Input
Amino acid sequence: MTTRILTGITTTGTPHLGNYAGAIRPAIVASRDPQSDSFYFLADYHALIKCDDPARIQRSRLEIAATWLACGLDADKATFYRQSDIPEIPELTWLLTCVSAKGLLNRAHAYKASVDKNVEAGEDPDAGVTMGLYSYPVLMAADILMFNAHKVPVGRDQIQHVEMARDIGQRFNHLFGNGKELFTLPEVVIEEDVATLPGLDGRKMSKSYDNTIPLFGSAKQLKDAVARIVTDSRAPGEPKDPDNSHLFTLYQAFSTHEQQAAFRAELVGGLAWGEAKQRLFELLDNELGEARERYHALITRPADLEDILLAGAAKARRIATPFLGELRESVGLRSFREQVQVATEGKKKAAKAARFVSFREDEGFRFRLLDAAGEQLLLSIAFADGKAAGQVTKRLQAEELDLHAEPNAFSVRLDGQAVAYSPEFATDAERDAAMQRLREALAPQE
Ligand code: TRP
Output
């Protein structure tokens, strides 16, 4: 079975070297695994929570999309899309909001940090807190649960949010699943051995410390940034200590063991810092040069990027649209056109019995057979009129069932002709179990 990996990238900034080593590069490597099915998206609804500058939002979406593609993400294999192109996400957010405990969200770190800051400053605890910030974890839960992701790789600051997605998904399953797992409960993945890069000053590379190395600036910008890396004051010829040099740490994140050993020996042997910086610059320029060219080519063709992302959204919606339909049904938002007719007549436990639901659509009249839990057992072929469909439902309850196993499903026949089909099953055993359940559901009851 393939593992579905899903992660979002908030579109408020320009990716730097730290993002590349810590998130982008490992995610792209993971997406190439034939056992995995990757969903990577631009979390631009999340970006609106933190940023009210439309120009910056737009620029960042474009830059991040171009960065991931330039770094080698295969948009045909992975599903790469913008959150804001999936209207099912905000719709699911509302369904989840209605089952999310306020007390759970009160405990979210980002919200609590704002409250603590306000209290310390003697302000109203909720000063400056929007409902967007408060509900941030619910939107993120919708991102994850919409696609039934198994694994969610994130930074440590996001662990709590993935746990909340589990809590919320579990609650929804409990309330509306009728014993069925509507949502897969996601697991957080923290990549332990992925590099957290130091920035120019040795602290973690981060936009908030203003110590970043640009990912796709010009070669000159890269060189200038490397020149600003802080080193100790040992003179040329004096032995350097690689293990206490963040310049060496940066070098390690992009080099082979042999390169590292050679560079270490040179530093211990007294290589001047200026030379060392030149070595690091060359290493980075070599690693990033081709991707940088692809990046600049992509950035100048925003219409092509738009097409790629819209194709990704269409792919994602092929999953999201029917699944949201199922979820709407599960909470009771159902079409009035479906008429409920209790399958078996004249018994006490009518409410618990399987039921036929007939409905009309473009091709004609169909019915579904739902079990007591609301799960679909059968979907009929289209009949010319409601009467023909009704006769078939009567005969299915009265006559001996004629079931035919197919590769992933089974059909029900009347007079040798298939009149209804089961859903698809992953295994033969599941299919056989469903055939048994159907027999029981339609067995005459006393
Ligand atoms: N909140 C995440 C961050 O800031 C981004 C994000 C949004 C996300 N939705 C997600 C990550 C869903 C993983 C899964 O990093």
